[in-house]
């Protein structure tokens, strides 16, 4: 897995970095990925995989990476980071009022919190983390 990510990072539009997160004490390897869009924005990909170290909301049968390749298509996005896009910038399936968007956002945050709370985890840890891998993997990075 580490070798594949390092190979990916040799591409001109990719970057891989070790991340530390305030409030999270772990020996696990936290990795952030960045991908530069064709318009020059930095997109922050999410990683998914079959690892027990991954948060419950990012577990999958296979390793995969998903990222937002576009610009700021969500008119409800609050406080975007300059030069950076992520899935919060993606287009909405239908126009939503500010109240509808807030209700959907609040529901999503609550459900994610519920899923992660079973492990004593916090969704805020994963804003810039693509993969959370084992301490054994950390020794190979």
Query: Total domains, how many?
Result: 1
Please report the number of helical segments.
3
The helix fraction, in percent, is 10-25%
Question: Radius of gyration in whole Å, from Cα?
Answer: 16 Å
Task: Please identify the structural class as seen in this structure.
Answer: alpha+beta
Question: Can you walk me through this structure?
Answer:
The protein has helices at residues 2-8, 98-117, 135-138; strands spanning 14-18, 29-36, 42-43, 46-48, 64-66, 84-85, 131-133. It contains 3 helices and 7 strands, in the order αββββββαβα. The protein is of the alpha+beta class and 141 residues long. The N and C termini lie close together (10 Å). The strands form 2 sheets. Strands 1, 2, 3, 6 and 7 form a 5-stranded mixed β-sheet that branches. A two-stranded antiparallel sheet has the order 4-5. 22% of the residues lie in helices and 18% in strands. It has one domain (2-138). The mean pLDDT is 92.
